Amino acid sequence: MICNLCPRKCNAERNDSIGKGYCKMPKSLYVSRVAHHYWEEPVISGKKGTVAVFFTGCTLDCIYCQNREISHSNLGRKVTINELAKEVTLLLDKGAESLSFITPSHYTNGIIQLLDIISPKVPVVYNTSGFDSIETLKKLEGYIDIYLPDLKYSNNDLGLEYSNVRNYFDITSKAIEEMVRQTGEPVINQDGIMEKGTMVRNLVLPNHTKNSIEVINYLAEKYGDKILFSLMGHIAD
């Protein structure tokens, strides 16, 4: 596989054992955790939690990443599509509000294969940094019910400084447009659980409150009530 799934377009070889792209991951699926997860937004986790698949590797390099061992030290285990399908199905059978794929951008092809096998009856959540290719997102149309992207920065300069990517805002703002096009406006059921739509996240960075205000203003002006928004903060040790 010569990979151009993410906007970096590495054109790099990824086979069953070798990953020469920016994410450093082979084509084979590597996961760090597959389990019920109760700490996403309430409309995602609800009371029963989301079945969360945490993928190893990442297409960004955020200096404040809380999951660095997973995203850049390749902490995880190799699984086949069928093995992951069995794990996810067992967890879903125990009850869950949703199924979430976390840091999924470099494993889009595998996710599509997995969903073709399991056909989940709960909303499918694509939990992403937002740094996604339009071409890759279009492959996911009809598979993803809820997009949960970050919009980390209101400008490209902060993306370069903190995530080692030159065009984060340009790429991510267009990616979110595609996500909203696919999902339409948010749908919340009578139990307060999100069934469809796009929810954008932003983490308030130390000394960069202005950045978060600019992100909020941009999203409010462009989308209004067509998306949900989640503002996050650091918890001091």
Quick recap:
The chain is built from eight helices and eleven strands. It is of the alpha/beta class and 237 residues long.
Written account of the structure:
The protein is α/β, with parallel strands linked by helices. Helix content is about 30%, strand content about 25%. A hairpin with an 8-residue loop joins strand 1 and strand 2. The longest helix is centred in the last third of the chain and has 16 residues. The radius of gyration is 17 Å and the shape is globular. The N and C termini lie far apart (about 40 Å).
Helical percentage: 25-40%
Estimate what percentage of residues fall within beta strands: 15-25%
The secondary-structure class comes to alpha/beta
Q: From N to C, what is the helix and strand string?
A: EEEHEHEHEHEHEHHEEHE
Point out poorly predicted stretches: none
The rounded Rg comes to 17 Å
- Which shape, going by the Cα principal axes? globular
Distance between the termini: 42 Å
Question: Roughly what is the average pLDDT, rounded to an integer?
Answer: 95
The number of helices is: 8
Count all strands and give the number.
11
What can be said about the biggest beta sheet?
Answer: 9 strands, mixed
